[in-house]
Write a structure and sequence with these properties.
Number of strands: 6
Distance between the termini: 136 Å
Shape: elongated
Number of helices: 3
Radius of gyration: 45 Å
Mean pLDDT: 89
Length: 186
């Protein structure tokens, strides 16, 4: 029996593990690595689920914000037109009242037309429709004026001589350019 114990002692004394011990240690290392990999996989899957949920929420919020913005723009357009139309109703009322009058004198018709024009101009100004009516001698502006012809004049070249038709701006944008005659170069 002493012969059998001797080789075992030699192995443990020399410090070299037996093949069974090596196999057990490798299996333990593989088990630890597998356990760690499974834990990392579970954490990554949880993070992936969280990110996917966050993405879907952000996408839904973006879609809702776009829908709300579209609704607001539609309402703004609708009510802007409503406000403009409402400001023109007194003008229509004045015109109808003038036409309903049977025995008006030319002076009364003129007074009514002037009052109605004043109402119309006021309604346009309230809605930011501004008249373009350049004074004679003012510089020709191709962004706001449209030259109909060049005429000889006793003023500097490329200046407005006369206005054939007023123009209009709406919110600083040309709705219709003023039709003007321009001084020709001398």
């Amino acid at each position: 029996m002493s012969e059998n114990t001797q080789p075992e002692q030699n192995q443990t004394l020399s410090g070299d593990p037996s093949p069974e011990e090596l196999e057990a240690a490798m299996a333990a290392n593989e088990f630890d690595a597998l356990t760690q990999a499974q834990a990392e996989l579970a954490a990554l899957q949880a993070k992936n689920t969280e990110l996917a949920d966050n993405y879907l929420r952000a996408k839904a919020e973006t879609e809702n914000a776009r829908r709300r913005a579209d609704d607001e723009v539609a309402k703004a357009r609708k009510f802007a037109l409503e406000s403009f139309a409402e400001s023109l109703l007194p003008v229509a009322d004045s015109l109808e009242a003038g036409l309903a009058t049977q025995d008006a004198t030319p002076e009364q018709i003129r007074e009514g037309a002037e009052a109605t024009l004043k109402q119309l101009k006021s309604a346009l100004e309230r809605n930011r429709v501004i008249e373009i009516n350049p004074a004679s001698g003012s510089r020709f502006d191709p962004h706001q004026h449209q030259a109909i012809s060049m005429v000889p004049a006793d003023q500097e070249a490329n200046t407005v001589v006369g206005v054939l038709q007023k123009g209009y701006l709406i919110a600083d944008r040309v709705l219709r350019p003023a039709l003007v005659t321009v001084a020709a170069p001398k």
